[in-house]
Amino acid sequence: MINFTKHMCSLRSKSNLYFRPLSLYYKQNRYNSNGTILGIETSCDDTGCAIINGAGVLLSETLHSQNLVHLRNGGIIPDVAQDLHRTHIEPIVSKTLRNASLTMEDISAIAVTLKPGLPLSLAIGMKYAKHLARRFKKPIIPIHHMQAHALAARMHHNIDFPFLVLLISGGHCLLAIAEDVNVFKLLGESMDSAPGEMFDKVARKMKLRNLPEYAKMSGGEAVERAAAKATNPHIFKLPLPLADYKDCNFSFNGLKTSVFLHLKKKELEHEVVAHKLIPEVNDLCAAMLMATSRHLVHRTQRAIEFCHRNNLLPEKNKQLVVSGGVACNNYIFNSLTMLCNEFDYRICRPLPKLCTDNGVMIAWNGLEKWRKNIDIIKDFSSLDIEAISPLGESLIPEISEAKIPIKLIKIKMNSTNR
Ligand code: KG4
Ligand code: ZN
User: Fold this and answer.
1) What number does the ligand 1 atom closest to the CA of 172 have?
2) What pTM did the predictor assign?
3) Residue 45: nearest ligand to its CA?
4) For the chain (length 418 residues), average pLDDT per consecutive 10?
5) Which end of the chain has fewer surrounding CB within 10 Å, N or C?
């Protein structure tokens, strides 16, 4: 590792911690090729930065979450998210370098999320990455946010390509085969909203945030905690979405509407006022979680069957990776584990803090690309952000055509694994 004192001596000013005097820079002007990657993430409401060295060791990471601001506002307001990214990006990158005892000259390339995401948020990461790259003559490695979620599990688990991956977050629900670092085959996607978005909206409508224990949590986490206290979730009957569609796509709007209707009915029945919650709130959370898990298992079961029929995964690669913020959910993960047990699949997910948005997965994806010499862009002036971007080539028409029938496995959960 670089000597910290030596580098502190060459710092230009306290506020510009990663700048060395220009004269020194031009004298050395070395192109650092040891594979140390600085990753920047600003696709939604988290400003993240991390540095990973060429051996894959995480040297430092910094994350600024805007969650509390958006909880107060009742959702993400893009202008507000952009302002917060703008305020925090410079100090966060500085802090990450400082904590790793590195300067920008020790960095080989800057990996930055360019797609998909909120345009105003993505733009801040891109502009800052370009500014650093220009100033320090570094290449940029453009990162697809959902591919980064998919590959994050490879940082701590032994997972070879190809593998099956389920990406469940606040903005996406995708089922795919990861064939290589930048080659994905899409098997299924959401027709409307994402599971995290549904949890966030329902948690808000249920007023979970009014209970101090949930006040600082994301909607999904609050729903999981409340569901763990349920005593009788079966009083609420919720549908299995897309039950008659023989593909691997997802839908959460119908489920969300059903939960809202049950909520409304209970609020009327109990004459619930203003800031109060319905007494059955834990049971309704559990019912929603169970229905969501059933839906995710159902579609993933068909994907497993499709891969089997078409020899898409060799026997030794029967493995499912689950990632994205909603992958933190133990009930959902345990349900998918039961599915995997049934079909002899291994299952894994990144560490919880790497399931939700972070800079580490961006730096890691950058390193995976660096090692394979993919997407290392030296002339980056024309690089731009994309709000929407496919994960890879779609096999969805082939899956629909195959009309594979599925007898949904039984998900038997007890109170300890709920
Ligand atoms: O991946 P992520 O950090 O951001 C996106 O790319 O969307 O995912 C955030 C989502 C939020 O909707 C949040 O409610 C959900 O992940 N989430 C959870 C849990 N923790 C976070 N959903 C269910 N159970 C959890 N424990
Ligand atoms: Zn994400």
Assistant:
1) 7
2) 0.92
3) 1
4) 30 39 39 88 97 97 94 91 98 98 98 98 98 98 98 97 98 98 98 98 97 96 98 97 97 98 98 94 98 98 98 98 98 98 98 97 98 97 97 98 94 62
5) N
